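Contributing new complexes? Match this layout with zinc ion.
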Amino acid sequence: MRAKFAATLAGALVACALLAQDLPPTTDAPQTQAPALQSQAAGARVPQIRRHLERTTRPSSFALISEALALGQISAETALLYRVFATFGDERLPAAYVGDDSALVESPVNLAAVRVALPTLSAEAQAALRPFLVPPIYEGSWMAPGTSAPSARRLDTPPMCGRQATGWEWVQTSNGKVRIWWLGLQPDAGQADAAHATEMASWIDNDIWPRLVEVMQEGHQPVSDLSQAPCNGGNGLLDVYLTDVPHCVADPYLACGPSPVYVLVARNTGRQTLAHEIMHAFQYSYKLAGGCLSDNEKYRWWGEATAQWAMDYVYPSRQGEQDAAPAFLKYPEVALNTFNEYHEYGAYLLPFYIHRSTGNPFTIGLSWATCEASDVPDALHAIDAVVDGGFDRLWPEFVLHNWNGAPVDDYQHWDSLAYHASTYDGSVYNPPQVAPDLELSFPVDLPRLSATYAHYKFTTDDARSVAFWNGATFQLDKRDLGEGVMYTEDPLSAEEGKGGFVRALVKVEGKPWSIENWTERPWVTFCRDMADERLEELVLIVSNSDFQDYGRHLKAKTLPPTVWVSNLGCWQWTGTVEATSLVSPLSDFVEHIQTEVTWKRDPVFSGLAVHYTLGEGAASWWVTGGDCTGSGSYTLDGGSDNSFWTENHTPRENGLYYRAILGGGYCFRDVSMTCSGYQFDHQLGNWFEAPDPGSGQGTSRVKPDGTVDATFTDTNGGRTYTIKLTPQRQP
Ligand SMILES: [Zn+2]
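Output block (do not edit by hand):
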């Protein structure tokens, strides 16, 4: 029982040390600057160094405690106690469990769940935890040392409050909704707190309350806490307490909504953080059909995401919410509704995208209202129901916008957001050279509502042929179907491909970026020798929009998606071919044909292999031996008698066709020659041949340096061909 209960708690409370000081607007800073630089540029008004919400080298206190629990070093009860100590900055937390909590937005502990669990704990643990469950203005609270909560009260049901402690003062908002408390015992600090509380009241009156009521709908304002007397601050208003908590806490009185809430904030809490915490009070007004808001994967992640979004919605020109963005964008392969103390805050980008892309913030409120419908089991289903087209349409567009760089940089324009999604390995691949070829793949193993990004740049001219093999939404394999091992692409079953989407961002030299859907394309090729296909950058985004099947991942079934880059030419080849006949019983002279040739890409018949037609061919011939003389020159025409193929995208495993060239050239040209004083009519033979490797006569290949210097002897036809070709790049 204990272990199960601890696991439930491990999820839950919300914080604000980082966000305690809201930042001034930074809209005047250049968009190209990193946010860290922007905050420096904002100067002395930034009170402390900002840290991004991502895992620092030392884990958080909560992570250290969870690890010790998992290793059996501490009991579930002790872990719970320590987590509450960490939440309140209590000195009883042993040093070994004091982590770096500076990047936490809120504490992951849910005090309502602690309250529910209390009766199951030891008497000592109950005594230690009880003060943290009492609002700070009451005797027995952690804020009123030296007092103790009335022991006569049942501890498993609120209230557990004693009398109000002395020294607390308050202001009320003009709208009659919120009371803000501070401890006025020390004159100087009390005066500063009084001034700050008054300022907070004006933020609530002027900005926070009107905006949140507008978006969350009139019927879902924070629930009155009249029923919670005597712990309720004396009336039904929402109580906000200025305290010394290291992290803000929006604490519901009841584990499940609708529940009234009280809010503990740090004494210097700024307006954006206040908006975040008050958004939680709005969220607790809903009766969620599938359970409690404290359920991390069902609702709580969306609670944090939309509370973080409220910071932007209420104060769009302030950017405190952006601190959470890296915790999402650096881990795109993590499921959307993950709750890990960080990711759920960064997930504010989803409501941000929904709001800013449509101009309609009401979808966010509607998602919460939809969570009350009896057939909606969690927040994901609610979001799917309220956005146009559901996740199938939303998710590929959202992850595209998370790229937040050319050509999709709306976040920069909407909100000066400079963070962008990380690639699967955190880098951009730009090979300094390709020869002879590179096979680059990236992993696809995507849980519900996640994505992965791969980014390639091509600046070296020897990257001539590029192919994308779609191992994400096809079953990519290498198999021998009769011509040696080739890439093969078979469709996935509907179940295997569910939610899969492949997006390509394509930048070709001299052209604007194009945004393409490659989900249905088994492969895509580019010939960088051609000006029209001179790929400079390629960004591939694979995403999984499935939101229902938690156990399933969108995975590469056999081979992962692969980018194949080769120095094999694909536009035009120039060079020479020498054909020399063999001495045979039928002829004692030798025929030579030397041709200067240009092969030109045939756009019609080019695909994975490239077909060329004869562009120009200047041939000269002569005979030697057998007392024969004769020579001449002529121009080869470009007829279909002459053809040339290159196997640009055949994998290395294919010993027959890898880098093969194929083709033939025929002249059937009538000439005359002289042998032993007599004139003969003669028909010249083939000027060019590179046999099909499948014919068993061997393979003529492009060399690793990209040129052709091949010799083929055709014993049947009685000729030897020496082929020297160099690939050309279209100017
Ligand atoms: Zn929160």
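Reviewers usually confirm one structural detail per submission. For this one: The pocket of zinc ion is lined by residues 14, 106, 276, 280, 304, 307 (CB under 6 Å).
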